[in-house]
Write a structure and sequence with these properties.
147 residues; alpha+beta; seven-stranded mixed β-sheet; 29% helix; globular
Amino acid sequence: MKQSNIQPMQPCHVPQVAAMENACFSDPWPEAVLASELENPLSLWLVATEGETVLGYVGAQSVIDEADMMNLAVKEAARRQGIAEQLVTALCTHLAANGIKHLLLEVRVSNSPALFLYEKLGFTPIGRRPNYYFHPKEDALILRKEL
């Protein structure tokens, strides 16, 4: 497993994160929205970097003692090196240290690599959201992890 430098996302990371959003998702978050997340006290965004290059990122929003993982992506050239696992693990550690007890997320039912990772990290399915995703239309599985 490649060890990455995991750190809170800073304004200098936002353009690379936005480019990754566009490369990885059919309905990407705009750069301005990602930048505004840095000002949101309920949000936590982490990046995995190598030098000045962002290899991956994860973001979550918390309310009371529960968090919802919003986005997770790793650059195509950096995949299958354990970066996503490191990001989610670091996110869970940060959230738990701040009193969060549960982490929820939605994932496409067809996203086998993500489902494998989340199962490995202790997430369990708790429901399904029909037609949650667009482009293409697809159901989401709702997963939960106790922190």
